[in-house]
Amino acid sequence: MALFRIGNAVGVIGGETAIEPMPFEQAGQSFPGSAFYYLAPDAAAGQPLADGAHWEGDSFAGPAARALRAGGTALDRTRALTCLTQAIYYEAASEPDAGQRAVAQVVLNRVAHPAYPKTVCGVVYQGAERTTGCQFTFTCDGALARVPNRLFWQRAETVARAALAGFVYAPVGLSTHYHTIAVHPYWADSLSYVGTIGAHRFYRFGGPAGAPATFNVAAYRGGEPVAAPPPRAAGLTSPDAALDPLAIERAYAQGYNAAQAAALAPVNTVPMSRIGGFGAPPANHPAPAYAPALQARGGDALYTAQTLPEGQGVRPEYAGSGQWIARPGS
Questions:
Q1: What range(s) does the Cell wall hydrolase SleB domain occupy (predicted)?
Q2: What backbone phi and psi angles, to 5 degrees, belong to 33?
Q3: Neighbours of 49 (CB within 10 A)
């Protein structure tokens, strides 16, 4: 013999079940809708936090980027695809799809930002001509000497092809920087944190440098350089100071503040009498130079009114116009 229980019903397998009616099921104890008041919501079970879950404060991605589509010649599109695939492969080959799309979006966000080159390959290989200071580590640490794994390369190429066809990965917004969770660069505490995707933390510019209006995807016109690192320049052993993200952010803020101050500055007005405005006497302009045939016919006199009626030319019957016919009370 075995017992089973469902709610307040207790039964015996193979036997009859005795069910105790609930109050709203008893005659005289219910009204339409009374069952609602006997509902007992299950206590919410606490869900364990996922591994690595944490609160990062300001982690708002902000507005998404606008779609950038590869243009230019077929060679430009091929080079752009190669460079973006390289960036995705060497920076995020083992990342999930979201991590690879985020890296691709950062590259395209830089292409649209005035502070960076206007080509995909230019962005990817920026600073690679220096012994230190390359913007993407793989372009100057020897990683390119490794032969890519075909399967992972094709996966990265699929993500790159979609990004260059206009796909926008909104979770990173207008991010222009990222780093792995294993390091903490000097600029990480100054830029605006967007979020962590895979093994990378993403950041965007604050202030005018990161405003949506600053990014212009229409500035991309192709003209892609060779999809390879530029030759190393002799004597360039330090990073380019112009690529410091904090310097870029400050420069945009200073320019914005200067423009605001100029817009609010008082304007030196010129009296209307000096520019021939309302109430000013007519300016004397020299007569134009007419052709000899017009000069023989009278020149400027042909275009000057000579027969306009004046005070002494008023007809007698209209001489009293505007005067009282008879003054009131007279």
A1: 94-203
A2: 90, 0
A3: 8
